[in-house]
Amino acid sequence: MSFIYQKIGLLIKIWLIYGAFLSISAFIPINFRNFAVKQQKSIMAKLNRIRVVLAERDLNNKWLSDKLGKDPATVSKWVTNTTQPSLEALIAIANALEVPVQELVRQEEFNQEK
Question: Are residues 38 and 55 both part of a single domain?
């Protein structure tokens, strides 16, 4: 009879260990995904200088959206670095502001991280 209790005890231990493993492994992808999203947002937060260049020229988002023929909400997302403009849009922005494209892109932060 004690042999059966030993086997049951062993099965319970295995089940508990397996359950703990499943619980831990279920959180790993979520935590990693959250970390990756935070890293991406922090990189995107530094990417462009459109807001700075607009401020230097006493211009606003509305002016830029009219000049580019884009939705003001889209331009607002670019200016706040919520999203980034495509390369074509970045060139159009540079042309509208009469600045080189390099002036709209933050490079010094990325050079220091390497």
Answer: no
